[in-house]
Fold each of these.
Amino acid sequence: MAIEKMSIAKALNESLRKAMDTDPKVLIMGEDVGKLGGVFRITDGLQKDFGEERVIDTPLAESGIVGTAIGLALRGYRPVVEIQFDGFVFPAYDQIVTQLAKMHARALGKIKLPVVVRIPYGGAIGAVEHHSESPETLFAHVPGLKVVSPSNASDAYWMLQQAILSDDPVIFFEPKRRYWDKGEVDVDAIPGELHKARVLREGSDLTLAAYGPMVKVCLEAAAAAAEEGKSVEVLDLRSMSPVDFDGIQASVEKTRRLVVVHEAPVFLGTGSEIAARITERCFYHLEAPVLRVGGFHAPYPPARLEDEYLPGLDRVLDAVDRSLAF
């Protein structure tokens, strides 16, 4: 067992390095990923060690980046594409949803496209417009795409390698506000299933389910609730498509209450599908309606207002209190 303490950013860098060491067909493409090492330094040092033919600085053309990755995947490569910021992915949306997601079905299973699209997402970094979006639901809605997001360094390390090994395209959302959060990583571990939810804190009164940047907020909320004698379970969903509904159901059958938390707007967000599905599955177990906490149905605000927009500790605890009041 080799346990190392590292930030999420460092874990992603080490994960990419391990994947490239293991398989010469793994390539990295994106704006400023080479000489600069990416705006968040996730690819720092990789071009120096693996060369410009495997770590490729591209023009500012997201549709071209993803389109080229699709062509490379058709020729047997495993491209890992970096979209510099979440709001920049939309020029590539057509390539992703009409080609990347559809090619396997269009070819009756004869063609595989093992492409990973890495997207730093979410707010709370004081950025300007188009730099703090949470568009995960737009991709989770598309059949043919896997959509995942780590919340800690260990998952960042292992989930990215699992995504690269997948023969299906994976949209890999990285919580940029958590890049510098540190945690222990066992680099010799046998990772669990990529799309399996994980209980991070046991509880008996209510389940808080979240993914990516909101997991830390939910853990803080559970700790605060414990000071008032409330036992809150925290479930890290890890995957938005497919969703581990069995894992959520098992937790809810124990706690009988569920609050789903994400940064994205509540309206038609991931929490909407989870609330509907768990209500269907657990109707006779639930002692309160499934509640959702998220962003407002409005464009992401200027940086000085984002603390009012983003769900924080108080809004999560308010949902906990409302659920327990039923």
Amino acid sequence: MNWELKLQLAAHPLAYPLVRGLGRIAPVVRVPRVGVVVSDAGIAKQVLNDPAHFTKTGPGSPADLWTPVVGPTVLLNMEGAAHAELRRKLSGLFTPRSVADLCARVADEPVQRLRDDLAAGPVDLVRVVRRLVGAVICELVGLEPGEAVAAHAAGTAITSMVRLGRPSLTPAQVRHGRQALGTLTRPAARAYADGDPATVPGRMRRLGLTEEEALGAVAAFVLTGTETLVSYVPRLVALLHDSGWLDRLARDRTRADDVIAEALRVTVPSPVMLRSVAADTEVGGVRVRAGDRVVIATISAARALGSFDPDRPHPPDVRQLWFGAGPHFCLGMPLAYAEIRAVLDAVLDCAPLSVVERRAARRVLIPCYERLVVRRG
């Protein structure tokens, strides 16, 4: 059994075989209490590009999960003109220059420490990436860098409550989620009030965001940018190690973007995406009615292309599917790529590396390693 399968089964011992099995039955399958499950990449992109019929704000959509916790003005649970306007206001945070400046402030020190630690002995990459992602969150919300681990923990405390078969959170989970999020939004609110453009909330104020919009954006960054990167980067390194690509890439880094994209396809940071049917229509020949829940099994749609192979190009339907499509395509993709490249470059600088210990995390939303220890040589 390969390690990617072990990670999936450790995270979702029942849901993963169910979702993958449905993909082998038909491209679109209606499942009682779950929804209409889409396992085909082309059909998935049709749904994602059709907000008139498939929305993030109806029954069974992301809004059902997140609005009670984070409020109504978060990119994850908005549609239409209001969503487009908020994206426009936030786009200035993710220009190449802004991303480069943010990574220089936040990532340079922990990445250099990774190089030094790899030169000295074994390193747990999960801990390294968790610190780095937490540090980025701290920068986004106005926390001190020393709060990086706590910031990451607050984000995962919220996302860990989500289950495929449960379209909304319980009242107790909502209270727990609000408490966890409060540890991040309170300092963000102070930074917004101060208006210092050196802080991200201060920049949001300068960009014309209201306080509610700024805090909602912070919540979106936390929910989408914590577990995904902490999951992906160690899995990327493990895939490269196991496939022999780590040494190959260390000799020729011109293929780095292809390798990162292929590892994203295999690991699928967003294994499932949700939409609510806004108006009666059909999905891959299956009739759906307003209020139905559509579950896009990104994991099946992306993995249908086969096992890890950076030499194989991605067809248009599969390309960047894990970042979404249409009006909700991931706004933070440039920052995610910058963080990935920063860690990967440090790892390649220290190649050759060997994996000396690894352990799968159990019962988590995004499959990941609990521990991945590498050392030089």
Amino acid sequence: MSATHLVPRQPTVTPAAYDAATLAVLAAMEEAAEQHLDAIRPHNTKRGYANDWALWEEFHDWLGERTGHRIASTNVTKGTLVGFVVWLDTIKIAAPNSIDRRITGVTVTARNEHGVEVPKAATVAARQALKPLKNDPERQARGRGKAAAVTPEQLRQMNAAVADGLTGLRDRALWLMAFAIAGRSAEVAALRADTIVHVSQGLEVHVPAVKGRPPRDVVVHYGKNPDTCPVRAWLTWHAATGIATGPAFLPITVHGRLGDRTLSPEAVREIIARNAERAGLSVRLTGHSMRAGFITTSRRAGKREEKIRAQSGHADNSPAFWGYIREADKWTDAASEDIGL
């Protein structure tokens, strides 16, 4: 006979329902516990959770653009959380460990800030979706380097593979404008048609303030190659749509008609990445690739640092800007050149 059979079986007892006074004490203890945990949580962790929730909001904006209905961000379900994992992997090109951390940030913020208890089945499913990504060496290597800087040759490849119709006209105008103004994705999304002025030399473009960065006014010259000329691409898109005011670039429905919503920064990044993939480029381009590409290309063409910086809106002492300049200059008057070897 096993030891368990020596223990008398206890009768099943159903716990009594809590009275109102007990429930009030327990609720107060729960609230006090959350306040205590929040107080001892490191500042960097809090900031990380805030960033995670901002990405969660961006995911819902992206989803709303595609479904025509934006659901509340507090709908943290198995479907939305797994969709978030796929979006972070395929659209944001996030590393698996970063995605894992984002799942935690969203669930903690949903509970602590919005009073939403995320079902365990949702987090289990999200991490099941994440598991094969963690076994992929290429995905694990993500986030360990700078965005690839696009080249004029790659822009021509993208032009050759661009889609037909209104979508193709918009996409080409968008990525060439992003390149020509050295624009951040948020800046490209915020451009307005009425502040892009056609003049004899090209375009005068007002780049609006985004995320606390100051606005700037830049000029975009006609290009020598019609396939990569941002001025011609913009004028063609503008003529096809007749947009006079409001957002410079709009979504296009599955039926090929203009939408009435402003493109999100994520949509700008997706358009660039999708067209680079369509063209079969050997590197994956992101929204930042256009900005980096302009700086390196302009520098290799001999343009002065202050002119390039005025176009890109970088601060005088920006490490990122000077990193691009060093990359562009590394073969100019190289130390190993013509030294008698």
